[in-house]
Each structure stands twice: as structure tokens, then as C-alpha cells.
Amino acid sequence: MQLIRARFRLRHPGFSLDTDLELPGRGVSALFGHSGSGKTSLLRCIAGLERAAEGFLEVNGELWQDSSSGHFLPTHKRPLGYVFQEASLFEHLSVRRNLEYGQRRIPARERRVQLEQAVELLGIGHLLERMPGGLSGGERQRVGIARALLTSPRLLLMDEPLAALDLKRKGEILPYLERLHDELDIPVLYVSHSPDEVARLADHLVLLDDGKVLASGSLAQTLARLDLPTAHEDEAGVVIEGRVLGFDTRYQLLTLALPGSSLSVRVAHSPVEAGRGLRFRVLARDVSLSLEKQRDSSILNLLPARVVEESPAANAAHVLVRLDVDGAPMLARITRFSRDQLGLYPGQTLWAQIKSVALLA
Ligand SMILES: Nc1ncnc2c1ncn2[C@@H]1O[C@H](COP(=O)(O)OP(=O)(O)OP(=O)(O)O)[C@@H](O)[C@H]1O
């Protein structure tokens, strides 16, 4: 069974962590929550760094901890990689030697990731003979991630791996993280403050608040839940996956297939060929609703939608509406005035006008 079960109780003065999670044993699970909500504490429990933590941890069928029977694998025996904000590389060793150090911790027959593969995945072939002192923050982080992979982990823990980088470097490194996600079969627990990173990388989302799990579910379903604080942020929105149908060079329009309709996005170049999957993000504030299909509208995307439920928004003049668009959940933030004009009710079918779609690639 591909599953990570993580049940922990940990007390610090003034803070207690109490989690009972079942996470998918593959793909990226993002841990999201305010500062102090317990994200790092949970990763530390999973890594076995909190000896005082009571709990149970099973990773894809392997038992790492069970306090009820006194079973506790110490950190160095847990096959995991841990990537922090800043990579702590051995400064006196070249990049190649740093990577080999990671690899040597594992007997040859147990290695699941080869040096060439990690170097290629992180795009660091040209850095191998360099010393860490001369690397940029983004390059260091890529080397740190490659070194973690070379220990052939059964689980990769990443604690805000991009937080120390500026926006440009973040943009450079994200495609490599996406490749890890697509090409390696190692489950990742990814702590982040950034909705954008989560939208791009995560499959599963865990929301933590004051040491407790507020929600744990698929990214698409969880982002669309009106009862969670994420739906009430200014940047609230959903992530949808579609398959590329085609790219029109004259109009620079990329068309993506949804289960029963399609969406068009204006982009200069198609990032992938037809048939491949792509993620895109639709913010609640970019979706408006109408009863009629407005054919004369300059808005490109008009999709049939069904109202599932509504909730007051943070701003009293707005309401949040959860929609079902061909089985894909979507959020719309509209004014209370529009809501009354539409006579909105659950089950109503209407048209969602999508003013802007952000491609996550
Ligand atoms: N060793 C410790 N002793 C006492 N309190 C601690 C200890 N470690 C963590 N805490 C407290 O536990 C709470 C959760 O901390 P944690 O670092 O897990 O939060 P976080 O969600 O990762 O925060 P951030 O996003 O700021 O990194 C905080 O209030 C912190 O002060």
C-alpha cells in the first residue's frame, strides 16, 4: 500500500503538536500553515529528530516508529533525505565530492538513484568540479537536493527549500523540482509559505494550524473548500490540470482539454507538445458569473458551471461561490450585488467567465 501514516504528539512549552495524517505514498504533499503552526516540528518528528514525540510512522509499508511497542528508528537509520532553506555543503570538497559523499552512505546494491541521474535531473553537470564557495544560492540548493537524492531516500523532506532565494532564482529552480516530481518515484513532504510553489508542485495539501491538522486532501479539492482559510485569501483560487489540445501560433492561444469543455490561454509559446498535461491556476477574483452565454464578450473562456455552495467572503461586499465545472471544482468571488441579481442558489447552472488563467509551467 502506497501510504504514509504519521501520527504524532509532541509538547513544547506553549505549543503542542497533535497530528493524525494519512498521506499518499507518492507525489508531493505540501505542508502549509502560518508561522508557528508546527510544520517544521512535524518534519522533525518524521525525521526522528524529536525523541520526545510519541507516535506512529509508517512509510510505504515500512515501520519507522511505533511508540506503543517502543519501536523507534533513529534518524540515521531512517532512509530519508532532508533539504533545508540553505544547503549545508562541505566547503572544502568539490561539488562532485559532495555528491559522492551522499552516495557513499548507501551500499551500492541499495542505490536507487545514480550520480549521473541526479546530476542530469538538477542540471548541475557543469558545476561538478567547482567548489561550493563559488556557487550561487540556487546552484547550491540544486547540489544540496542532488546530494539528498543520492542517499536513495524512501522519503524526501523539504523545509522551505526556496525561501532563501530571490524571485528570479526561485523561478530557475522550480522547473527542476517539477522534474523530480515527474521523474522520480520518491514521496516528498514539502513545507512552504508560498501558494505559488504549492500550486505548481503539490498533489496533496495539508493545512496546519496551531499544531493541528485543519485539512488534508487532494490539492484541487482542498483549495476549493469554502470552510478553510485558504479560500478567503486575496490570492484564493484553484489548480486545474488539463491536457494540451493544441497551440494556435497566429493567435498565440494554447487550448487545454477539461473533462467536458476546453480552456484557452494566451501564451507566446506552448511549453509542451499536444497531448501532455499542464497545470493552471484560476483565481477566485478572476471568475465572474452570468446567466446567459455572452457571445459578444471579449472574455476568452466561458464555461458551463453548476453552483455547489456559497459563503460570505472576508470583505462583506463579496461572496465566495464554489462551482463545479465538468467535475473540476472552481471558486468565484463575486459581489453580493451580483449574487442577488443572479438569484444564486445551490444546483443552479450558469456560465463562468474566466478573465485570466495562469499557466503553471
Ligand atoms: N525546541 C523547542 N522548544 C520550545 N518550543 C519550540 C521548540 N521547537 C519549536 N517550538 C515552538 O513550536 C511552535 C511551532 O514551531 P515550528 O517551527 O514547527 O513552526 P513552523 O510552522 O515550522 O513555523 P515557521 O513557518 O515559522 O518555520 C512554535 O511556537 C515554536 O516556538
Automatic annotation (TrEMBL):
<feature type="domain" description="Mop">
    <location>
        <begin position="296"/>
        <end position="361"/>
    </location>
</feature>
<dbReference type="InterPro" id="IPR004606">
    <property type="entry name" value="Mop_domain"/>
</dbReference>
<protein>
    <submittedName>
        <fullName>Molybdate ABC transporter ATP-binding protein ModC</fullName>
    </submittedName>
</protein>
<keyword id="KW-0547">Nucleotide-binding</keyword>
<dbReference type="InterPro" id="IPR005116">
    <property type="entry name" value="Transp-assoc_OB_typ1"/>
</dbReference>
<dbReference type="GO" id="GO:0016020">
    <property type="term" value="C:membrane"/>
</dbReference>
<dbReference type="InterPro" id="IPR017871">
    <property type="entry name" value="ABC_transporter-like_CS"/>
</dbReference>
<dbReference type="GO" id="GO:0140359">
    <property type="term" value="F:ABC-type transporter activity"/>
</dbReference>
<dbReference type="InterPro" id="IPR008995">
    <property type="entry name" value="Mo/tungstate-bd_C_term_dom"/>
</dbReference>
<dbReference type="InterPro" id="IPR050334">
    <property type="entry name" value="Molybdenum_import_ModC"/>
</dbReference>
<keyword id="KW-0813">Transport</keyword>
<feature type="domain" description="ABC transporter">
    <location>
        <begin position="1"/>
        <end position="235"/>
    </location>
</feature>
<dbReference type="InterPro" id="IPR003439">
    <property type="entry name" value="ABC_transporter-like_ATP-bd"/>
</dbReference>
<keyword id="KW-0997">Cell inner membrane</keyword>
<keyword id="KW-1278">Translocase</keyword>
<dbReference type="InterPro" id="IPR027417">
    <property type="entry name" value="P-loop_NTPase"/>
</dbReference>
<dbReference type="InterPro" id="IPR011868">
    <property type="entry name" value="ModC_ABC_ATP-bd"/>
</dbReference>
<dbReference type="Pfam" id="PF03459">
    <property type="entry name" value="TOBE"/>
</dbReference>
<keyword id="KW-1003">Cell membrane</keyword>
<dbReference type="GO" id="GO:0005524">
    <property type="term" value="F:ATP binding"/>
</dbReference>
<keyword id="KW-0067">ATP-binding</keyword>
<dbReference type="Pfam" id="PF00005">
    <property type="entry name" value="ABC_tran"/>
</dbReference>
<dbReference type="GO" id="GO:0016887">
    <property type="term" value="F:ATP hydrolysis activity"/>
</dbReference>
<dbReference type="InterPro" id="IPR003593">
    <property type="entry name" value="AAA+_ATPase"/>
</dbReference>
<dbReference type="GO" id="GO:0015098">
    <property type="term" value="F:molybdate ion transmembrane transporter activity"/>
</dbReference>
<keyword id="KW-0472">Membrane</keyword>
<keyword id="KW-0500">Molybdenum</keyword>
